[in-house]
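Sequence, please.
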């Protein structure tokens, strides 16, 4: 068991905890939506995907984003997961990312979808 991300309090009034599979999913979300330079002690941590919400859609941009995401996940979580596929969708002011990965410890395949929007 590990602390849930984002931090929250459970029904017993204690720090919420999650199992290892959900912790890895939370870690992927942190890598995807952390802007490089946001963390003081790890200035190169993250992908900076939120900066791409306003970028024009194109096949070249989609390919570059997929490579960036895959590289960042490999760099920061390569000991825990093996990334099989990454899909990024930019619709208006909403960014959707789907990551297919295999947990290295038990070889189980997972599919995780993340979404973020900007604006009020």
């Amino acid at each position: 068991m590990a602390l849930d991300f984002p931090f929250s309090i459970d029904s017993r009034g204690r720090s919420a905890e999650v199992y290892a599979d959900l912790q890895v999913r939370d870690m992927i979300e942190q890598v995807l939506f952390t802007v490089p330079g946001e963390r003081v002690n790890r200035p190169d941590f993250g992908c900076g995907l939120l900066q791409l919400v306003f970028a024009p859609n194109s096949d070249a941009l989609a390919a570059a984003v997929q490579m960036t995401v895959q590289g960042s996940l490999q760099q920061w979580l390569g000991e825990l997961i093996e990334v099989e596929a990454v899909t990024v969708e930019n619709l208006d002011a909403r960014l959707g990312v789907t990551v297919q990965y295999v947990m290295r410890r038990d070889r189980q395949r997972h599919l995780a979808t993340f979404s973020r929007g900007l604006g009020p």
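The CA atoms of residues 34 and 118 lie 14 Å apart.
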